[in-house]
Amino acid sequence: MNDSQIKKLKAGDEIKLSGVIYTARDQAHKRLAAAIKSGKRLPIDLKGAIIYYCGPTGKPGGKVIGSCGPTTSGRMDKFTPALLKTGLKGMIGKGARSKEVIDAIKRHKAVYFLAHAGCGALINKCVKKAKAVAFKDLGPEAIHKLEVKDFYLIVGVDSHGRDIYAKK
Predict the structure, then answer these.
(1) 28-61 residue pLDDT tens
(2) 157 near 96, Cβ under 8 Å?
(3) N or C of the chain: less Cβ packing under 10 Å?
């Protein structure tokens, strides 16, 4: 997803995302933030990347991946501004984001998507390829590179800072 596509999105829009995304949950975020703080090279290039807050389950026979539903995004809020500063362009999860994260999304012209909670066993049908690429010792919380097709999402916070959860 490029900057011009992101700029056109509005909170509440529904899209089908196809392309490469990375999974990362709490422990992976903690390690990424520590690497950024200490000036170390990150194990994946976040410039232009999208992170899905997900820890996929083991893959059942014949499947590319097991259940891969979203986790609560707010737990990653303390790490998100630093990741956005490195060039991260999108996040996928569930739930509202903090004011600090919304401000960082706006400042870095990024986007936050919502995935349907409780649909992990169905979301896996959108995953065409999956491979653990970093922090493999974390098991399901390792960073996985996923190739997705027609991953149904809702724009939760757009690049202008408009928030689907904001009271009108």
Answers:
(1) 999 999 999 999 999 999 999 999 999 888 888 8
(2) no
(3) C
Return the SS3 of 158: coil
Distance linking the first and last C-alpha atoms of the chain: 29
Question: Catalytic residue numbers?
Answer: 29
Q: Which CATH number fits domain 16-157: 3.90.550.10, 3.40.640.10, 3.20.130.10, 1.20.120.140?
A: 3.20.130.10
Contact partners, residue 160, CB within 8 Å, separation at least 6 = 10, 106
Rounded Cα distance, 60 and 66, in Å: 6
C-alpha count within 13 angstroms, C-beta hemisphere, residue 13 = 18
Q: Please say whether the dihedral angle defined by the alpha carbons of residues 24, 96, 149 and 48, taken in this order, is positive or negative.
A: negative
